[in-house]
Amino acid sequence: MANKAFIIKADVNFAVKDVVATKDQLESLTLQTGGYIQTSKIYNNTTDTHRYPIGGERLKVLTYFVRHGMMTVRIPRANVGEFLKSAQGQVVFLDGQEFNATDVALDLQRNALHAQIEAERQAKLGELNATKTDDLADKSTHVGEMTDSKYRQTLAELDRKALAEQVAFSTITLAFYQNPQIFESVMPDTQAYIAKDERANFGHRFVQSIGTGWLYFLEFILWLTSLWAFIVGLVVAIIFYKKAIKPFWNKPFKMKSKKIENKVNDQMDNKS
Known about the structure:
The protein has helices at about 20-30, 80-85, 105-125, 135-170, 190-200, 200-225, 230-270, and strands at about 5-15, 35-55, 60-75, 95-105, 170-175, 180-190. By secondary structure, it is of the alpha+beta class. Strands 1, 2, 3, 4, 5 and 6 form a six-stranded mixed beta sheet that branches. Strand 2 (about 35-55) and strand 3 (about 60-75) form a beta hairpin. It starts with 5 loop residues before the first strand and ends with a helix. The mean pLDDT is about 80.
């Protein structure tokens, strides 16, 4: 274990009596164990809402909600056990807990080796005196290689420090909540105000309704007026049908009726 370097992460989800009080206790515990708070938040998740009138144009609103808290803290690796043990005092019901340890010893060694290689490369490049040559291209290449080498060395060193910091301080994510609660509030009853205003202004609205009805009637008359061409065309079509088409259409039937009438009359004359 001496050659191991672990990044420790823990996730804990649990119920508490009071989210706000628990958050304060966990913040104090974090500082006491030499850690620091990375993130912290409290939020409410509304599950249901009921409204009902209580008179006086007012509504009572019942809001059912669950309060949640979430924290991410960084604790020195040596104090993780102490922190988790002390935090158990806030737990009413443990929903779940996850613990993860990742060995990054090889990553640390690899980054340190990269930084060392680049440092040695810079030293060798420094031994070459670029000013001995008058070739500007050679000078530019030499300076560029020095700059790139220093940049890679810096990145490798930063990565090593970041991993070392993660090894030194374990990351613990705490998600907690409390039992559902009900929040009572009183708000104006908009519908009651509207109904009251409508009753108070009945006469004025009645007069407005008469005026509106008269406007609708005028619009209807104007609409009928716009149909004059259709009405004239319909009258002309009816007259044309009666004067021209209907007599011509009924002429064969009249001739046939005339023949039948004459035949009947001849038969009656013969009998007599």
